[in-house]
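Here is the promised in-class demo. Please do not try to memorize the tokens; focus on the logic of going from shape to residues.
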């Protein structure tokens, strides 16, 4: 099976996972419209008919509620907005186009393993990604009889610029290499997987995290079936 989409709009494309995936899409002959905060990095990307939207943008900060005076609620809430509510707004904005496109379309989200297993130094990131995860589950079920596929990339830590602010030089070596991430993510996308796990959550094996997800998916399927049986 191959990746069936020809033109990806990629939100959060100028650094980290977004830039690496944009480069890979282009290397596979897929057109990319790249959107991000760093205008000087956007010039090399291309532009016609979008049939997939990749919502990848995210922020990550450390917050210690054991020292409340050190916590900026403004920054905390900005992180929640960037990682969750802004992506909900973009999903709402793009769905009319995706639902009426002449060929099958997709929404692709970058999530994280900490949506299942929260990381205590990252309460805003963990909570916002858990909220995004729940939203993805809901719209996947709501869109199941449409032409819009909902795809979810679920990486463990990846060596990107995201970690630099809190970890400095150590952040460049935290997680799996970005090239390995791209290869494994692309393999999942070309297999047609809906939930694509890449890497691990610290302290757990890939199999342990996948077992958590599989059990959760079973419970979601049972609840969804029950709700549909009640005509909801």
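The designed amino acids, position by position:
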């Amino acid at each position: 099976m191959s990746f069936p989409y020809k033109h990806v709009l990629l939100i959060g494309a100028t650094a980290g996972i977004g830039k690496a995936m944009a480069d890979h899409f282009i290397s596979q002959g897929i057109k990319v419209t790249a959107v991000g905060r760093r205008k000087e990095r956007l010039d090399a990307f291309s532009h016609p008919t979008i049939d997939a939207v990749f919502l990848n943008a995210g922020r990550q900060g450390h917050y210690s509620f054991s020292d409340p005076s050190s916590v900026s609620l403004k920054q905390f809430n900005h992180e929640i907005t960037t990682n969750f509510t802004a992506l909900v707004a973009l999903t709402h904005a793009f769905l009319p186009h995706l639902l009426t496109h002449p060929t099958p379309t997709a929404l692709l989200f970058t999530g994280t393993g900490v949506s299942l297993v929260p990381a205590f130094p990252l309460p805003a990131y963990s909570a916002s990604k858990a909220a995004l995860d729940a939203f993805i589950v809901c719209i996947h079920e709501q869109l199941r009889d449409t032409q819009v596929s909902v795809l979810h990339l679920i990486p463990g830590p990846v060596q990107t610029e995201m970690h630099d602010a809190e970890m400095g030089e150590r952040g460049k070596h935290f997680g799996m290499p970005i090239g390995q991430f791209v290869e494994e993510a692309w393999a999942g996308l070309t297999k047609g997987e809906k939930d694509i796990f890449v890497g691990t959550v610290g302290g757990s094996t890939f199999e342990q995290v996948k077992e958590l997800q599989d059990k959760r998916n079973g419970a979601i399927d049972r609840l969804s079936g029950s709700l549909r049986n009640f005509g909801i």
